[in-house]
Amino acid sequence: MNETAVKVKELVKRYRELLAVDHLNLEIKQGEIFGLLGPNGSGKTTTINCILSLLSYDNGEIEIFEKPMKADAYDIKAKIGVVMQNVAVFEELTVQENIDYFCGLYINDKQLRKQYVEEAIQFTGLEDFRKFYPKKLSGGLLRRLNIACGIAHKPKLIILDEPTVAVDPQSRNRILEGIMELNRQGATIIYTSHYMEEVEQICSRIAIIDNGKCIAQGTAEELKKLIKKREIITIDILSVTADDIEALKALPHVYSVTFEDSKLTILCDGGSHNLVRVLDYLQGKEYSFGHIHSALPTLNDVFLEITGKELRD
Ligand SMILES: Nc1ncnc2c1ncn2[C@@H]1O[C@H](COP(=O)(O)OP(=O)(O)O)[C@@H](O)[C@H]1O
Ligand SMILES: [Mg+2]
Which intervals hold domain ABC transporter (predicted)? Predict the structure, then answer.
């Protein structure tokens, strides 16, 4: 069994009367890419800041690499790389100087530091911008600089808080690829996002957060098994009789059939061969149909079924 990288027990954080984190429990193993997925305002950044001891909290315990995390636990802090939601770099330093500054907080050896800074520049693809000042960088490049500053010292645990917000698709893909590469090189990753596709793409396990509470935790596959909806079949068809809709509803695993705008939508709660059965039925009744689509639920469906609201605003 892998060792624990981060353990959060019964974390509670209040901002006056607002309960921002509500008895949150997390256990993140070394080697994972762990996703904290939740809408804006659900408490992701607050949780990260508590984990890092940047914020005091009202209740709970936090352990990092199996030691209690405290504001002055510098030995633990040296093993952590943080990429904050708000880009935090020095305007008066160039790209290279910024990375060197942050790397220098942890790496004293000059030669090693030079090597690490260069590796971070190459890793984030900032070779052509090393002499640039931050204000000359696009949003995507600035994010990449923010990441380079957070990871140059080769931390064992890397925490990235919404690193792809306001980033062009090219930089976004580069960032996601980079995170997976850092993980392959051995780093444990905590990744917060309100983009379910990203979280599903890169995370080995996911905690879904809403109103400061963890409402579900597991692999994407496990999370999808928590809900009733397992398969969504849509068929373009001109018309369907009410009798046939009732007959489709009676098929095994089908629990909802709706027809709207020449589109038949059939929701199934499990089973295989659902699509074949549906098509067999329609063909038997000599319907002709156009586009056919069968989809698995998304994490948005999971969020929707558990909370009653959309993850996307
Ligand atoms: N410094 C603060 N003072 C008061 N309320 C805050 C503060 N920071 C965050 N909040 C509130 O706490 C809740 C959680 O915020 P946050 O952790 O930033 O969520 P997320 O990162 O998921 O968007 C929100 O309702 C937010 O408005
Ligand atoms: Mg946030």
Answer: 6-236
Contact predicate 158/190, CB 8 Å: yes
Asked if residue 293 lies in contact with residue 299, where contact means CB atoms within 8 angstroms, the answer is: no
- Which residue owns the Cα nearest ligand 1 atom 18? 45
What CATH number is attached to the domain comprising 158? 3.40.50.300
The CATH number for 271's domain is 3.30.70.100
- The protein residue whose alpha carbon is closest to atom 5 in ligand 1 is 15
Low-confidence ranges of the chain (pLDDT < 50): none
Mutate to test the pocket of ligand 1, among 12, 14, 18 (most ligand atoms within 8 A of CB): 18
Is 200 in the same domain as 158?
yes
Sheet holding 157-161: strands in order across? 80-83, 157-161, 188-193, 33-37, 205-210, 213-218
CA of 15 to the centre of ligand 1 (A): 8
| Residue 209, in any domain of the structure | yes
pLDDT at 231: 95
Determine contact, residues 223/305, Cβ cutoff 8 Å.
no
- Amino acid (one-letter) located at 69: M
* pLDDT of res. 166: 84
The reported pLDDT for the residue numbered 1 is 59
Q: What is the extent of the structural domain holding 235?
A: 231-296
Tell me how far the alpha carbon of residue 45 lies from the centroid of ligand 2, in angstroms.
4
| 179 and 271 share one domain | no
pLDDT at 2: 74
Helix segments in 32-109, DSSP class H: 44-51, 74-77, 95-104
Spatial neighbors of 41 by CB under 8 A, at least 6 apart, are none
> What is the whole-number distance in angstroms between the Cα of residue 49 and the centre of ligand 2?
10
Q: Within 6 Å (CB) of ligand 1, which residues are found? A: 15, 18, 20, 38, 40-46
- Ligand 2 centroid to 255 CA: how many Å? 37
